[in-house]
Amino acid sequence: MNHPYSTELADFFKKPLLEAGNPGLNAICEYSGVTKEQLLPGLQRNDCRQYLIMGTCMFGDKCKFDHRTAKKAEADEVMTKLKRFKEDPLGCSKGGEKKNTNKH
Ligand SMILES: [Zn+2]
Predict the structure, then answer these.
(1) Ligand 1: distance of its center to the CA of 26 in Å?
(2) pLDDT of 39-55, one tens digit each?
(3) Distant-in-sequence, close-in-space partners of 29: CB < 8 Å, separation ≥ 6
(4) What spacing in Å lies between the alpha carbon of 49 and ligand 1's midpoint?
(5) How far apart are the CA of 84 and the centre of ligand 1, in A?
């Protein structure tokens, strides 16, 4: 079952994602100098990282991971660590990143 995507993260990502041409989570993390694991080290094994952070998951309802809403502290952590992407999203659009935004 899908829980709602964090509105804080939706707000955070909306503009830079648009400006950078929808880079994937991998590209965003790389650009911000963290790995996906470092972004939210407290995530559980059954949490769908892709959904929790980006609000989209290519597996949808069939995803074997848990589509839960990011807690306030998790949203804050993501927003802090991806500050560079928020402040200068255009830098992330260069360099020919893959267009696939739905990687797990
Ligand atoms: Zn998922």
Answers:
(1) 15
(2) 999 999 999 999 999 99
(3) 35, 36, 38, 39, 82
(4) 7
(5) 25
* Chain segment 26-85, per-residue pLDDT in tens: 999 999 999 999 999 999 999 999 999 999 999 999 999 999 999 999 999 999 999 999
Distance from C-alpha of 72 to C-alpha of 9, rounded to nearest angstrom: 10
Domain locations in the chain as residue ranges: 7-88
Contacts for 34 with CB less than 8 Å, ≥ 6 apart: 81, 82
Write down the pTM of the prediction: 0.86
d(CA 81, CA 38): 9
Report CA(13)–ligand 1 centroid distance (Å): 18
